[in-house]
Amino acid sequence: MDFMEQLVGTVNKIPNIPIKCKLGYLGTDESFCMYPIPGSRVVTEYYDGDKDQRLNYEFAMKSKDQQKINNTLWLVQNHLEELSDVKSADGSFDFEEVVITNKPYINQLDNTNFYIFALTIQASITTKKK
Question: Which InterPro entries does the entry mention (predicted)?
Answer without folding.
Answer: Tail_terminator_phage (IPR024411)
